[in-house]
Amino acid sequence: MNLLARFRSWLRWMGNGKKLESEMETEMRFHIESYAAELVRKGMSQQEAMRAARIEFGGTESHKDAMRAAVGIRWWGELGSDLRHGWRLFYKNPAFSAVAVLTLALGVGANTAIFSIVNAVLLRSLPYPDPDRLVRIFFNEPGVGLRDVRFSKPELDDLLTRAGVFEDVTPIFEGSEDVTGAKQPERVEGVNGSFSYFSMLGATPQIGRLFGPQDFVPGFAAEAVISDGLWRRAYGADPNVVGRTLRLDNDPLTIIGVLPRGFRHPGPTISGDVEVFGAGGFSGDPFPKPIRGNRVLGAAIGRLKPGLTLEQAQARLTAMAAQLRRDFPTDYPPRAQWTIEIQSLQETLVGKVRPMLLVLLGAVILIVFIVSLNIANLLLARASGRQQEMAVRLALGASRGRLVRQMLTESILLSLIGGAAGIATAVGTLGFILRFVPSNVPRLNEVRIYWVVLGFALLISILTGLVFGLAPALHSAKVALSSAIREGGRGSGYSIKTGRLRDVLIVSELAFAVILMVGAGLLLRTLRDLLQESPGFNPTQLVTANIQLPNPNEPKEDPYHDIPRRAAFDRELLRRMKAIPGVELAAITSALPTTNTNPNAVGGVANEGFAIEDRSVESSQDLRAERIRISSDYFKVLQTTLIRGRSFTEGDEDGKPLVAVIDESTAHKYWPTQDPLGRRVRFARDPTKPWTTIVGIVRDIKSDGLDIDGVPHIYVSTYQDSTKRLSVVLRTSLPANLLEPQIRHEIQGIDPGLPVFNVSSMNDVLDRSLASRRFSADLVGGFAGLAVLLASIGIYGLLAYMVGQRSREIGIRMALGARRDDILRMFLRKGGVLAGVGIVAGLVFSAFTASMMASLLYGVRPHDRLVFLAVPLLLFAVAVLASYFPARRATKVDPMFALREV
Amino acid sequence: MSKQLDLLQGTLDMLILKAVSLGPLHGYGVLLRIQQISGEQLEIQQGSLYPALYRLEHQGWITSEWGESENNRKAKFYRLTAAGRRQLHAETEKWNRMASLIANVLRTTPEEI
């Protein structure tokens, strides 16, 4: 109640300063005049009475000040005068102000940009209604160490009807598809879901309609919904696009609707946003018979019923999975411990990039701290020069708290100006910055400067203002009155107190720099290790291109329907590739190294089950490997070592005995004690299929990413077993861009409807797979470099200042016989001690921060000895160098001049 | 003059509340009333009355209104609020307890220990 009354009164006067002033005047005048009148009655003359009354009343100005303070608005007026004073100082010191504002603008700008990305990607809810209820559903077999395995139609139905936790579930088929019929055959990202996909995500069409239950067919629907992007690009934003036919992988699909511009498919894509949306029933042709064992569906998302928490839903699904395992023991062997897991869709989408983004955010926050410590040092130097001003103010009755407030107002004014410049920079350059962010970071299209981003930038600005303002402010308040006034206008010499404060600032700055450098060191070492690590082949002088044979839902439309026809295409393709001048060798693979990052997408190479001859069904349940289809020269083109046995030949074709080559991981994992050569395996564990004989063992090739080891692979001959997703690999000394037109020409010479995409050198392919690691390593490395620069400027500035302040002392020392070497050593020692303390403190903190980065590292332990040794040495060397220049200047002091100067 | 007592720290607020509890007063009136009821024994720095009045009003214990003085001049009159009455009551109680406590302490003779 009391607080409310005070607030009401404060508000009343706050809004009406003029009225307050006049009321105070009137009231006091009335008092004085009334009192004077009484004195007159007691016999004084009018003039004398007024004088006496005024004296008795006391100074009206100070009373007024006390009254303003009483209603809580005095600070307002003071703030105004502090701001004016600060602005004048700012204006009078253009060099200092420019440096401070510029570095602040950099710091705050970088923070704003990174935070706007963090905010859009990690913090904001997904742009669908009730996003908290959207989940990604995983089928796992923890008993055999597998997560996210494929599932079957009956299992999907269980989720819908038996689990009782989902309002809706849709399987998701992600993949890229060929769009033909437009100018140039084009490769676009597509998604096939169920007919309720759009209603589950709450989407509404821009034109036409979206899928609904009325469209239901057991196989794939003959309709499609397209994105705003494709509509504009391929159809020129034609308002009558509904009803037109789109050829997707040769299937004619009727366009029924166009999505609004903002709609995005909530899942990983291979090369961009999803542009074509199909739907299907997943139970009829081309899908296999809907029985439990036919696990062909790749991924599923669902919407939980309202009011259910994730934990409750998970508990029910776990119970249901256990029941299913009991009900169908042959479909769910006990060893696999098949189970169902749900995760919030947001987490699934962004979980992978969270550590990277948080590390970047941490790095920019460190940078802004270093920047503010540097400014604090500058301000402290200035504060020493302003000691007299402060002393005079104190002598005239200002309280020390008042002085602190004034200094803080000045520094926050400075930080707000710098912050505003930083925000402006960030807003202006955000689009440019986003171009460098690797495209595997999801939701980048949602990055904007939202209010919360501005709030964050403001907070950072004010915080830095406080950080760099507090030290000089407290310092000013501690000014000893008498000595400061006596010393007069000249700087007060290097006092012990200021000295210690500045030392602390420098030490913290160095410590922060160490943290950044260790982080950068670890990330860069990870990157270097990955680049130097043998990918299992020789990536130089290789050019690759991707082709996707159409995958129509109608078999009659498919010219590549069976293996012999695809083999014929492969042979013709290889013949034409080898004929290109400059190409020495050519091969085909279904999975280029390092590109299999989304194994469950259509065209991805999934972990599939297989059986080994002579092993019990029971024990072969956990046998899984990625099956890669290659042509005979693949290992020769890649220059991968064949360890034992043989590779494929042109004769390993349809109708001949099936053969396979395995990699070392497979051999170690499944035949640890036996010789795998001559053993026989069978994919899909389908007893009706013939056995495949292992004929060779090769080195591991990193198919799933340079940072993923130990995934077992089984290679089969593309003439015996092929898919429609294929890449050609050419060994050639020509660059990719020179070959691209010829590759395209030759492939479209076979089939003009085939799009050729991603023609690039193998080194570029590897590079792309490291894009996000490179991005974060480069950025943190850049920040670390900046930190080192700022820290060395800090040390340099401190010592240079000390030398200036102590020139008289140096003169005396020299006059008394100190040698120049002694002087040099004195200052170098100072710099060295500061650097040493800062570095040790930084290393202690880094021990913590480095462990937090563990998930971003590969091949390097968080407490890597090399990094923890190199960083201190490097920083120490830089610090000593930065101390050397001012120290040398100290030795040039002329004793006579220094002595005479005072 | 030398007979007058300086005001104890923090008692001015209480005296003002008491003064206006007897009826609305302007600032000068508050001064006169306090002097009157104290038998001219208390020394009050006249000007310091006003910050105190503003502070009390800010707390919501008194409220003010412009009106006309006895000699027909514009003056600001202060009146006790309900909250102010409670506050005065509480302060009075506290003061009385404190005063009797201190008095007791000071009366203590060596035999009583």
Written account of the structure:
The complex is a heterodimer of chains A (902) and B (113). Chain A has four domains: 71 residues, no CATH class; 196 residues, no CATH class; 308 residues, no CATH class; 191 residues, no CATH class. Chain A is elongated, with a radius of gyration of 37 Å. The two termini of chain A are 63 Å apart. Chain A is α+β, with helices and mostly antiparallel strands and 902 residues long. Chain A is built from 27 helices and 21 strands. In chain A, the strands form three sheets. Chain A has a six-stranded mixed β-barrel with strand order 2-3-8-5-7-6. In chain A, strands 13-14-19-16-18-17 form a six-stranded mixed beta barrel. Helix content of chain B is 51%, strand content 18%. In chain B, α1 crosses α4. The N and C termini of chain B lie far apart (39 Å). The interface between A and B is medium-sized, with 31 and 25 residues.
